[in-house]
Amino acid sequence: MRSVSSSINNALVAAPDNGLVVREMVTIFAQDRDTGDIVPFAFWNDFGAVTANVLDGDTGAVVSRNFVGDSALLVVNNVPNVNDLSIQRVTVTFSQLHATVQDMVRGYNVRLARAEIHRPLFDPQTHNLVDTPPCHFLGQVSLSPVSTPAAGGEGGIDIDIVSDTQELTRVNPSRRSDATQQRRAPGDRMMRYASILAAGIDLPWGEERA
Would you list the domain boundaries of the chain? Predict the structure, then answer.
């Protein structure tokens, strides 16, 4: 989470007297299954579509995005504010009936897709953005279950967005072996005897061998 601007800070301070309208914006950068291209899908929890500037979660640059409304985005769970490297998870619920949501989860690959959550503030008198909203949460899609409701019921699509600190827990599946070293650097025989040492050898350091 980036530091807020003075305009946003002033609006928050004056909110008890002047009021403030808060909305949620979620962008998921899905992957085209055929071409591998990254396609952004942007939603917000208000009516209609809106084009708005936000600060990119990676670069901090101002970018313009087209956000789809009309109840496509239903719920954004509380975004944790922490100052450590603990793994944080935010669940976002989308409408299963919305055509754009259907296109995203069924037509594109969203697993491990980069995702951003913005929380824009609007002046209740002018209905204008207080300022360009910074990225409120940055992570990647962990789960994307699609539940089919019973007849007459309502179905939602829950997507978990996990903070990038999750990457710190990943384990390198490659083993330190001569074969692995050859793939990384052909001709480098540094790990030639790794398998022998891994098997366990009793080396008589500083004593006479029996």
Answer: 6-169, 172-205
